[in-house]
Amino acid sequence: MTTIRKYKLPEGAKARIEGTMLFIAGPKGELHRNIRFPQITVRCEGGEIVVTTESNRKKIVAMVGTIAAHAANMSKGVTTGFEYHMKVVFSHFPIQLKLAGTTLEINNFLGEKKARYAQLKAGVSAKVGTDEVVLSGIDIEAVGTTAANIEHATRIRDRDPRVFQDGIYITQRA
């Protein structure tokens, strides 16, 4: 039994395969990913990416869908991009944010004297407002990891999270 997943590239996106690397280019930039997996074949045919396997094993059939989903995320990123909106929540101590290169500095979190820091991944741009942080980029993994880094930096320790709900949380993904 052959498993086939086809993904039609959106307008303005172009794909090519060099060895085991899949390159997708669009108006916002270019992304690449290693798509090597045993018993799986990936081809670019016209405006489509075709992922196939001859195997019946569940792990390999599942990976066909995963590779197709990676291609879909990459093509969406290079054509429209990804944007995460994060809300700054505090009850008593106002949180102050400062962007310094690839680091977000979080001051006065729960009244702490020492600042907390969150790293921005390469290719992610951040806009910092008074009560909102907007992350944008073409790589969904980099944008999502950056948002997770910011949420993790404001994690509450040694206090009841039902009472102390301060932090920076993802409110919208686009």
* H/E element sequence: EEEEEEHEEEEEEHE
- Helix/strand-derived category reads alpha+beta
Overall pLDDT metric: 94
Give Rg in angstroms: 20 Å
Query: What is the topology, as strand order, of the major beta sheet?
Result: 11-12-7-13
User: Tally the helices: what do you get?
Assistant: 2
The residue ranges in which pLDDT falls below 50 over 5 or more consecutive positions are none
Biggest sheet layout = 4 strands, antiparallel
Gap between N and C termini: 37 Å
Helix content: 10-25%
Strand content: 35-45%
General shape = elongated
Got a strand count? 13
Give a short summary of the structure.
The protein has 174 residues and is an alpha+beta fold. It is built from two helices and 13 strands, in the order ββββββαββββββαβ.
Walkthrough of the structure:
By secondary structure, the protein is α+β, with helices and mostly antiparallel strands. It is 21% helix and 43% strand. It contains two helices and 13 strands. Strands 11-12-7-13 form a four-stranded antiparallel β-sheet, with helices on one face. The longest helix is centred in the middle third of the chain and has 22 residues. The protein is elongated and about 60 Å long. It starts with a strand and ends with a strand.
Q: What characteristics describe this protein?
A:
174 residues; alpha+beta; 21% helix; 2 helices; three-stranded antiparallel sheet; four-stranded antiparallel sheet; 13 strands
Write the SSE topology.
Blueprint: E1 3-8, E2 14-18, E3 21-26, E4 29-34, E5 40-45, E6 48-53, H1 58-79, E7 82-89, E8 96-100, E9 103-107, E10 116-119, E11 125-128, E12 132-137, H2 140-153, E13 167-173
Antiparallel strand pairs: 1-6, 2-3, 3-4, 5-6, 7-12, 7-13, 8-9, 9-10, 11-12
